[in-house]
Amino acid sequence: MGKVVNIPDYLIRKACTDDIQELNTIYNNIIREGGATGNQQPVSTASFTNWYHSHQEPPYYIFVIEIAGKPVGYFYFSPWRPGREAFAHTSELSFYLSTKHRGYGLGDIMVKQGITFAADAGLKVLLSIVLEENNRSISLLKKHGFKEGGYFPGVAKIGSKISGQFILYYSLEKDFSI
Ligand SMILES: CC(C)(COP(=O)(O)OP(=O)(O)OC[C@H]1O[C@@H](n2cnc3c(N)ncnc32)[C@H](O)[C@@H]1OP(=O)(O)O)[C@@H](O)C(=O)NCCC(=O)NCCS
Fold it and tell me: What is this structure's pTM?
């Protein structure tokens, strides 16, 4: 029998400026945990706010997953090779969930919804770039049909550990797959 979980009541919506503080806290806690992102030091509110404002143009939005009126995680789309028109149909998908809300299927929901929003926005290819030790995310992405597109050894140093990255891709249309 598969895993049985009770998915809490949740809402997914576009992020707004009122969310910045909470999302910044989620992200900084994930930095402290290690192994999920290249940032090694907490990101200041000013810097996180700038990042928020750089994700307000379609299709590069931030979406919040909210439980009982409070953001517990977020996912977002970023441009791939920004400024180069040939890559406009491709976007990077990233996702972050607060520690205490993990294991209830919310990661599944974020990735599934991310794929739906990408299709609605007319994107054709999603990429996700994941540190090699991030087995949770690799497994999550593969579960939703992402495929391994490449491996870059030794590109990151997390604490004293040298780490590689995987790039995983998801083709939303047959013509954009290999
Ligand atoms: C990755 C993350 C979003 C998963 O969220 P989650 O709500 O715990 O995941 P779910 O409960 O929805 O589980 C979905 C799938 O994720 C994978 N997964 C989740 N936890 C896992 C674990 N501890 N080990 C291995 N795979 C795991 C599995 O494939 C799982 O499917 P299964 O239960 O059918 O095996 C969450 O762990 C997280 O926010 N991690 C830190 C941030 C991060 O790494 N972001 C990626 C950078 S882009």
Answer: 0.96
Asked if residue 168 has its Cβ within 6 Å of ligand 1, the reply is no
Site to substitute for ligand 1 among 63, 76, 139, most atoms within 8 A of C-beta: 139
Confidence of residue 1 (pLDDT cuts 50, 70, 90): very low
Instruction: Count the domains in the chain.
Output: 1
Q: For residue 46, is it within any domain?
A: yes
Mean of the pLDDT values across residues 66-88?
97
**Cα distances (angstroms) measured from residue 89 to each of 68, 127, 145:** 35, 11, 18
CA 76 to chain centre: 6
